[in-house]
Design brief:
alpha+beta; 4 domains; five-stranded antiparallel beta sheet; elongated; kinase; transferase; EC 2.7.13.3
Amino acid sequence: MNEPSATLAHERFELLAKATHDAVWDWNLLTDQVWWNEGFLDLFGYQPGTIQDGANFWVTRIHPADRQRVHDSIYHTIKQGKTNWSDEYRFLKNDGSYAYVHDRGYTLFQDGQAVRMVGAMQDITQQVTEMARQQQAEQLKFITDSALTAIGLYSIIRDSHTGEVIDLRYELINQMAQRMTGRPAEELIGRTMLEVFPGIGLSGVWQQYKELAQSGVPLRYQNHYTYEGYDLWYEVQGVRHGDWIVLSFLDITELKKTQLQLESLNEELVRSNESLQQFAYIASHDLQEPLRKIQSFGDILKNNYADQLGTGIDHLERMQSAAGRMAVLIKDLLNFSRISTHHDTPTSVSLERVVERVLDDLALSIQEKQADVQVESLPTVSGDASQLQQLFQNLLSNALKFHRPAAPPHIRICSQLVTATDLPATIKPSRQAPAYYRISVSDNGIGFDEQYLGRIFQVFQRLHTRSQYAGTGIGLAICEKVVTNHGGAITATSEPGEGATFDVYLPATPQNY
């Protein structure tokens, strides 16, 4: 009785398997044989006689990335004594492509042993693809809505006869675009640009959009948007892809306002510099001429009327000394002003030649103080020769001036190439470069306490009284300004009574990197 009933049940199962469009299978777990219905052949494109009865045929057509997971899930179900199993994975079709399938099975047990599993596979590729497309659309919407840039996607409308671009239709806009235009998406999507903004057709902006849609050449420009009470500046970029174009609008209103303010400030600065140059011209002529007359008339009075002046000669000499200091101060201020406002085109400057000229100018002072000046090999840099001469003129003059009374000045000038990564942490050049020349000017003079290092490069800052050492307190400020103009930095190391070393860092020329 059992055998005819089993045969009848199997016939009914095969009849039902033929009536469904799903891929129905019957897996004998004892013999590892699998039976497939005709729906399997139709669903995955296999021909009768090309499939094998063994479970290996099934397993080897599961995508390698899914295979172990499916295997583990089936045997976990069987091991747990569960009857229902299901999973989703990719299955190889006869044409070499993969279909996404939803597979489910039912396990039959005899005396506690799994002997058979029957099930059905359903092709869900279309649903998975649609879900992935929807997820991508949601991700794209999330990304575009999170952007600080207004983004619009437009389809190109062409004349059916000539193919000429006649309009652009809104297909997608992000939240920023809605905020910038003040219009919700439902008022724009499906409508054309000329319909929404009829006045744009007469503007140069519309011609640029048409050119982008027609030629496909990427577009970028700035636009001042003043429509319907708005007063905004945009950085506009556009690209074409097929029959679509994407336009992005970045709000640069605040940046543009700042730029316009900076332009205004720059104009004021230019006028200020012009006024400063006019003052420098006046100072170099009108202010110095009275000082020269004071000194000249003072000399006449001393030479011709010394007896009559008596003790008044001391007042006259003090007056001349003050006039002389004023003349030096005006000269130094003019030098500082010129360095701050005037920059010649950089040229290749040999620092050895510069130092030679400075030593010629200081020859008398070097001879009087019996100074020993040693100059090692110095590099060629890019810069302003006259400014660099002022730099070394001031550094060497200071080394000669601040010498110890009991010891003749000993001055050494040397150079070393230093990579940017090896610069001391305290050195911040005004221009980035791969390497720098460190030019050191060392002396054996009176030195100074390094707690005053921050002061010595400031205008009018002095560490000694005029009665001790003459000067205006501008020389090192000029040095700092020259070095900054040349993209470098300057610092010093010293101890009282132990001399000082001034280190100048200047960008190295590329051939010496």
